[in-house]
Design goal:
This protein is of the alpha/beta class. It has a single domain, classed as Rossmann fold, CATH 3.40.50. Helices cover 31% and strands 20% of the residues. The strands form 2 sheets. Strands 1-9-8-5-2-3 form a 6-stranded parallel sheet. The protein has a 3-stranded antiparallel sheet with strand order 4-7-6. The protein starts with a strand and ends in a 9-residue tail after the last strand. It binds 6-phosphogluconic acid. 6-phosphogluconic acid (6PG) binds next to strand 4.
């Protein structure tokens, strides 16, 4: 793991997890917005970020985010229409992006209306490269300011599943995944490790007792996507007490 700093933060419960994530998001935006005036946040699917998304839609957090400066991307999505209840961007839109004054051009969904997941992956790579202004990642100039991540019960992250060849991708930024390794079993489109790593901060959100075992395996360094993931900046595991493995506090 070549991340600059790895940190584990344990909070009391899911409410504290959402509050702490909102604080970190805000302070990241404040630091990075001051740099070049615009920020990029890569969102995650799953249930773990839902509390955060709800908080952002309402005061006091809603009034604190400089919406016009922040661009919102998605780390992976299910290959279903945005209106499908399984769509990661659909969920983020319903919970906050459609409820706040963000300019429409600041929301960048994976185009799951493309013909194939591979086609959507290529289109999304183009969109990311246009935003970044280059088609090669430069480690001193990260693509994202903040990448949110969840951890699947089998140790997957984004749509990068254990044993998948996608874990070894070094060049491409986005891949189509014909077969999901975890439910819902629909094809996926996912950012790769190099694209996700290009961030000032990667913030994992993990909660609930059913994640304790897999977190223990990841923290022990077992060969799982959650243990292989790295980032150019700070790698932060924000977990609640119920999910914390023994000895992690
Ligand atoms: C997805 C994801 C996936 C998710 C983890 C954790 O589309 O399913 O992006 O990687 O983040 O499975 O999900 P939970 O937060 O629901 O446990």
């Amino acid at each position: 793991m070549d991340s600059k700093h790895r940190q584990i933060i344990v909070v009391d419960d899911t409410a504290a997890l959402a509050e702490t994530a909102a604080q970190r998001l805000l302070s990241r935006i404040a630091q990075d917005g001051a740099r070049d005036g615009r920020c990029s946040v890569c969102l995650t699917g799953g249930s773990s970020p839902e509390g955060l998304y709800r908080l952002l839609a309402d005061e006091p957090w809603r009034g604190r985010v400089p919406w016009e400066r922040v661009h919102w991307f998605m780390g992976d999505d299910r290959f279903v229409p945005l209106s499908d209840p399984r769509s990661n961007m659909g969920i983020a839109k319903r919970l906050f992006l459609d409820r706040i004054p963000a300019p429409r051009g600041n929301v960048h969904p994976i185009p799951t209306d493309a013909n194939y997941p591979e086609g959507a992956a290529n289109l999304y790579a183009d969109a990311l490269q246009t935003f970044y202004g280059a088609d090669k990642l430069d480690s001193v100039r990260p693509l994202f300011d903040l990448v949110l991540m969840g951890l699947g019960p089998d140790g997957h992250v984004a749509s990068l599943y254990p044993q998948s060849r996608a874990l070894d991708e070094k060049e491409r930024w986005v891949l189509g995944v014909a077969k999901a390794g975890w439910e819902p079993f629909v094809p996926r489109v996912t950012l790769t490790f190099p694209a996700l790593a290009s961030t000032r901060e990667m913030l994992f959100l993990v909660d609930g007792a059913d994640k304790r075992d897999i977190l223990h395996r990841v923290f022990s360094g077992e060969d799982l996507p959650g243990a292989r993931v790295h980032c150019n900046g700070d790698l932060v595991w924000l977990i609640d007490r119920a999910a914390a493995p023994q000895g992690v506090s």
